[in-house]
């Protein structure tokens, strides 16, 4: 059977281009389709939006040839400090500290700004001889046949392929059109995201303060700047976002504390309503879901994109090995190998995220004692600490080859 392209990927956000590059390197002809104009990605203005990329994700970026373009602007994550806190009172007495020096592999990960990562992906996809990018075009329909899939585009074109991959985000139309339902709930929380400039150096340390309404993450960027992910209830977040910059900072300062000296806003302010949404299946015949299309989770552990890039590594490995064996890579029994590989890991991550958010995002005095003791216990045992560091770096479990920095 001949197709227009081997694999159609719906979604040119972050996981879509990563998968396209990995599959293109393996010899597949890949077409990526995105509704947005590609020129709007990686605009040069600094806006402070960034991702805490685990070491394993950095290795995947290196393996697919994107890291060198990102590296000059990436900030190594050398230390992570986690503590309980209350606005105005600063961090509690029990602080959990993870230092990269406790493992041999180097930094636990890197903070990468969205503008540099998006630009690097766009440039690499555009230059790749096996990848075609169609932007400003939506996928409006899909027909799954016994030996091929056909997608209809908003400009009237139809494209046939052996496999359709949905990298189309939390409200995946690819999943919906295939009749794959979703499970999840609204957290009742919104993340306020912005960039902050501060007086003192951050020394590559990321902080997570657990406040009664939700966590406040302070993530290091180049120079004396950091990216903030600050969680509040929907109503409170809307109220804070509506304030002018000084009013906004008046709310942030008592939560942030003064350990980095005086703080000021360094860019635009964004809000993201938070919900959990997990697809009830990660594949069906001639179709697979990757990244947020498969699992959108709470940013409390900064693992959303890292989990997506693990999907990318796993699916690329399954499809490449199937192709080498001469198997029909779009068949559901091949795709189920991917689902089996990722499902358990994602379920574990979702459960851990749910438990952490429930345990830490409230002011119950009994839970407060329990979590402070928990932080203290983990901090007291180097072996436990090392386990958490390796987990945060993405080095545990059945790690796909690309995330080990190896070719498939
Ligand atoms: C506040 C916040 C902080 C976060 N921080 C971190 C962090 O520190 N570390 C981390 O690992 N993760 C983090 N995440 C998670 C991370 O942002 C997401 O996991 C990641 O962006 C998902 O990428 P994606 O490519 O799967 O989906 P998306 O980025 O949502 O891309 C989907 C793409 O599909 C396109 N599309 C949709 N439908 C169609 C269609 N019908 N036709 C054509 N195109 C279509 C859209 O235009 C879009 O470009 C954070 C998330 C939030 C909300």
Automatic annotation (TrEMBL):
Residues 4-350 form the FAD-binding domain. Pathway: Cofactor biosynthesis; ubiquinone biosynthesis. It holds the Pfam family FAD_binding_3. Its cofactor is FAD. Keywords: FAD, Flavoprotein, Monooxygenase, Oxidoreductase. GO terms for molecular function: monooxygenase activity. PANTHER family: UBIQUINONE BIOSYNTHESIS MONOOXYGENASE COQ6, MITOCHONDRIAL. This is FAD-dependent monooxygenase. It comes from Maritimibacter dapengensis.
């Amino acid at each position: 059977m001949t197709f227009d392209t081997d694999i159609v990927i719906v979604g040119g956000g972050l996981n879509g281009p990563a998968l396209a590059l990995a599959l293109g390197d393996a010899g597949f002809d890949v077409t990526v389709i995105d509704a947005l104009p590609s020129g709007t990605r990686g605009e040069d203005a600094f806006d402070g939006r960034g991702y805490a990329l685990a070491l394993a994700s950095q290795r995947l970026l290196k393996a697919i040839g994107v890291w060198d373009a990102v590296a000059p602007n990436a900030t190594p994550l050398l230390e992570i400090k986690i503590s309980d806190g209350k606005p105005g009172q600063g961090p509690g007495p029990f602080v959990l500290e993870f230092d990269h020096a406790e493992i041999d592999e180097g930094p636990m990960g890197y903070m990468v700004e969205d503008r540099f990562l998006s630009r690097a992906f766009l440039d690499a996809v555009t230059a790749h001889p096996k990848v075609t990018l169609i932007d400003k075009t939506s996928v409006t329909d899909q027909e799954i046949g016994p030996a091929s899939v056909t997608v209809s585009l908003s400009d009237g074109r139809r494209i046939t392929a052996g496999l359709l991959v949905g990298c189309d985000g939390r409200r995946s139309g690819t999943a919906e059109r295939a009749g794959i339902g979703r499970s999840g709930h609204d957290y009742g929380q919104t993340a306020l995201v912005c960039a902050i400039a501060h007086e003192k150096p951050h020394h590559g340390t990321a902080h997570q303060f657990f406040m009664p309404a939700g966590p406040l993450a302070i993530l290091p960027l180049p120079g004396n700047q950091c990216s903030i992910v600050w969680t509040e209830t929907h109503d409170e977040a809307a109220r804070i976002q509506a304030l002018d910059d000084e009013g906004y900072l008046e709310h942030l300062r008592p939560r942030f504390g003064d350990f980095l000296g005086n703080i000021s806003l360094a860019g635009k302010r964004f809000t993201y309503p938070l919900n959990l949404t997990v697809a009830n299946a990660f594949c069906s015949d001639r179709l697979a879901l990757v990244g947020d299309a498969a699992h959108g989770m709470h940013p409390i552990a900064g693992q959303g994109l890292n989990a997506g890039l693990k999907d990318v590594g796993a699916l690329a490995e399954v499809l490449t090995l199937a192709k080498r064996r001469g198997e029909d890579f779009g068949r559901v029994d091949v795709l189920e190998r991917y689902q089996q590989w990722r499902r358990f890991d994602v379920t574990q991550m979702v459960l851990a995220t749910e438990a952490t958010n429930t345990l830490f995002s409230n002011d119950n005095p009994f839970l407060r004692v329990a979590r402070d003791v928990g932080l203290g216990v983990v901090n007291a045992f180097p072996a436990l600490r090392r386990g958490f560091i390796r987990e945060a770096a993405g080095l545990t479990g059945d790690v796909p080859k690309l995330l080990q920095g190896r070719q498939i």
